[in-house]
């Protein structure tokens, strides 16, 4: 199990918004089910995820070209 942090969720939502991606788009790109994607978007973070799902998310995140900045 790995921890999907608030920062992970913020980055996911930022990329989703900037690229105007739907949940279906994200679930397809990351390789997770739509119910899992809904959980990642809507459930309060931090949350525990299966390691393979977390690795898919991190691999997808590394490929994104959006610069995020924490304030």
Describe the structure.
Helix 2 (23-30) crosses helix 3. With 71 residues, the chain is mostly helical. The longest helix is centred in the first third of the chain and has 13 residues, at 6-18. Helices cover 61% and strands 8% of the residues. The chain has a two-stranded antiparallel sheet. The protein is globular. It has helices at residues 6-18, 23-30, 34-42, 51-63; strands at 2-4, 47-49. The mean pLDDT is 89. The protein has 4 helices and 2 strands. This is XRE family transcriptional regulator.
> What's the multimeric state?
single chain
Number of separate strands: 2
The largest sheet has its strands arranged as 1-2
- Tell me the number of helical segments per DSSP (H or I, 4 or more residues long): 4
Q: Estimate percent helicity.
A: 55-70%
**Share of β-strand residues:** 5-15%
Which stretches of 5+ consecutive residues score pLDDT under 50? none
Shape: globular
Mean pLDDT: 89
Main sheet, how many strands, which sense, barrel? 2 strands, antiparallel
């Amino acid at each position: 199990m790995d921890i999907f942090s608030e920062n992970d969720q913020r980055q996911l939502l930022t990329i989703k918004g900037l690229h105007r991606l739907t949940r279906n788009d994200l679930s397809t790109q990351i390789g997770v089910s739509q119910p899992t994607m809904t959980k990642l978007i809507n459930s309060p973070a931090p949350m525990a995820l299966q390691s393979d799902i977390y690795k898919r998310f991190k691999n997808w995140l590394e490929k994104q070209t959006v610069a995020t900045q924490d304030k």
